[in-house]
Structures are given as structure tokens and as C-alpha cells.
Amino acid sequence: MLGAGNLDEVVAAVKPRKPTRRERAAATRERIVRAATEEFAEAGYVGARMADVAAGAGVAVQTVYFIFHTKPELLAACYDHAVLGPEQLPPPQQVFWGEMVSARSGRAALAAFAGGNTEILSRVAAIDEVARAAPHEPEAAQVVAYHEQLRRQGYADVVAILAERWGLRRGVERETAADLLLLFGSSATYLTLRRYGWSEERFIAWKTDALAKQLLARPGRA
Q1: Domain total of the chain
Q2: 12-21, 75-84, 138-147, 163-172: which range is least confident on average?
Q3: Sign of torsion, CA 199 200 202 206?
Q4: Which domain holds residue 51?
Q5: Separation between Cα atoms, residue 37 and residue 31, nearest integer Å
């Protein structure tokens, strides 16, 4: 038979742990960001209302304002959430980046980049398109410009890895290589080809091959 002390231990082990205050706050924040992403995609930046975001997240509108303060801050949070992914890690800490760094050829590195970049685009493209569709909204334009700057910095790091380990194609400077990564790894390119019926697998294969031919001193096999 179980004594009173043993019974208490069993009950404690079976009873589910209550989430901490920090965990509850993080869950609320995520619900709001997900609801905002849906609202922006449906209504556009100008048409999206904080009250509708709150309703979608199942919280009071005051909660949305308390956490994010303004619609531009909420838009920026949607960008960040999409780029960081399920684990909420910056790209250099995501799996694809490690695969790119440890690749044994430039083409393999670009294949890893193309796969990881496409996964990010699948999450961020919709919110990016919404923000870019509001060029006359200065605060939305600032969010776009800031994230574009971060993207260029990240792509410059990719170019540095390629240049230092495998070499760039003759005549291609690092800045030009970064420009090409920005083109091939953009939301616009991704969405255009997806709308033409391309699968993500086809898009990744095409992007890998195109970047290898454009950037690498030795592109490798197609």
C-alpha cells in the first residue's frame, strides 16, 4: 500500500505542470503574431485593424497594444517571427546554415542555402508582399527597409563563405554576388514562380543551379 507521502508524490508526478507566467506571455504573443499575419494577408497593411487582430488571437485589444504598441511594431514582429521560424532562431543558428558551412563543395553549400532560404520564404513571403504593397505608408516602408538591410547583411555573410572556401566566378565581385542572392532569394521571385505552379522542390533545384552558375568559379554538375 502507498503511504500518504508516497501518494502525494504520485499525484504530483501525474498532475500536469502549470505554465509559468513567462510561458503564458510567450504563448499570448505568438497567438497575436499569428493572428496579425493572417489579418495583414487578408486585409493588407492599411486595412488591418488591431481590434481584428485581437479578436483573431482571442485577447483584448488593450493586450495587443500593451505588447506591440503600434501597427508598425506588430508588422515588424510578424517579419521576425517568420524569419526565425518554429525554433525562433536567427538564420546563422538554423540547421541549413550549419549544413552550408560544413558542405564539401560550393554547389552543396548553395543547395543548403537554397533549401533553408526557401523554407524562410515560405513563411515570410506573404507578410513581405503586404508590407511592400504599402509604399506610401512611411512606417511600413521603414520596416521593409530595415529587414531588407538585415537580409543584405546575411547574404553578404553567405557570399563571404562561398568566396573564401570555393571562390567566386571571374568578374563577379562580392557586392554583385550579394545582389544576385537578393534577387534569387527574394519573396517576389519565390511567389512569382509558385504562382506559375512551381513546387518548392523545383524552385530549390532551379535556385541552386542558377546561383551555382552565376556565382561559383566551379559550378559543378547541374
Answers
A1: 2
A2: 12-21
A3: positive
A4: 19-69
A5: 10
